[in-house]
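Async update (no meeting this week)

Hi team, since we skipped the sync, here's where things stand on the single-chain job. The sequence we agreed to prioritize is pasted below, unchanged from the tracker. I ran it this morning and attached the output directly underneath so nobody has to dig for it. Comments welcome in thread, and please keep replies under the output.
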Amino acid sequence: MQKIRKGDTVVVTTGRDKGKRGEVVRVQDATLIVAGINQVKRNVRPNPMKNEVGGIVAKDAAISAANVAIYNASTQKADSVAIKTLDGGRKQRVFKSTGLPV
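Output:
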């Protein structure tokens, strides 16, 4: 079970975007794409078949999962996640500081 999933709100802990929050758009192995975080500029060619205009486009680059922490809304801080096994054998993600489910 992954500790950070698509749709989670995360806080960047290191790097030039330290302290920023964003929602996870995509998870790829040990890297994440977070909306509005780690943006890079790319030169894009126009594509009339897709109605795309060329130019310089800002796009979200991947960030390592080790450089983010999940955001705990109840404490308003970054928190770590533990995996707890329930009675029926089902697994559930919980915050380590409060024990509440993610």
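Quick observations from my side:
The CA atoms of residues 46 and 53 lie 5 Å apart.
The chain is about 0% helix and 50% strand.
Reply here if anything looks off.
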